[in-house]
């Protein structure tokens, strides 16, 4: 692949022009992103309470790679490549489950929860067969900010090194993280490039200017303090509500429990977002997994403490699912179509000197991370 494909003219911050449009549909660039970014990234797996008992597991797919995250009999959480070590059959096809052992549906090779090969029919007939050499291949796992993450790359830097300060920031926003449980999860495939979705989600320039739910969001946010802040490989977007606010989503703000008084999107590069809506008793996940140059798998999750749902929390979920989310998806779709136009290649970021709530400096920062990963990988 020639270096010219990654050229990004006029990228200096104060007068920067956006990534060339080919970054959002070129198969060669997408293939490079798979190798340089996503195969080496830390990926969100689950909350520990999702696999609370020995044998409970979740499966996460990243392109052609599939990973099992499972609670062992010793209480430890481990991850393994989801593939039998006999003939390469995909071992588990379910998203979630609860097992005593993992049994391959092809030839019944059986693995313990620690990945060890427990049984393999007729291998006693093989000379020198050593079961200890045919266990499942391990994948790196870390606990970070109350959740479980995995990395396919053995030499990846620890998350605390890659995202300094991010864990403490998150835990301050979510005091009930240890008690959180998955309330609901929804998957969808959106026919756009993954960066289109991230770009839309990390700038507030469009919030007061697009659909009715976005304008409603602007009505309760204090935009003078709603600032995108770039912190290296992680960044935040959000701020407090307007002074004197007494209701949200048509529901009075009362004495019900909540996580934070701040609206906040908390991002880890490349595409993991957890976010908070003020006065709601939940933390939401927004996981972006590209599946093609112009196709992205998106997984939304709601995690709530183990107590009755509050009225504002319920109203917020309805508002997100039925209003704000669909408005953003529609914007994603029309942007992807426009990026293919012969009449467009680069635009101008709206980056003001104040780095205000409406500035797109976080989008420029994100594009720099993508560009840097691609060019350093060559």
UniProtKB/TrEMBL annotation:
Cofactor entry: Fe cation
Entry-linked PROSITE patterns: RIESKE
Transmembrane segments: none
Ranges for domain Rieske: 42-150
Record keywords, A-Z: 2Fe-2S, Dioxygenase, Iron, Iron-sulfur, Metal-binding, Oxidoreductase
One GO molecular-function entry: dioxygenase activity
Protein name from the UniProt record: Aromatic ring-hydroxylating dioxygenase subunit alpha
Organism: Roseovarius rhodophyticola
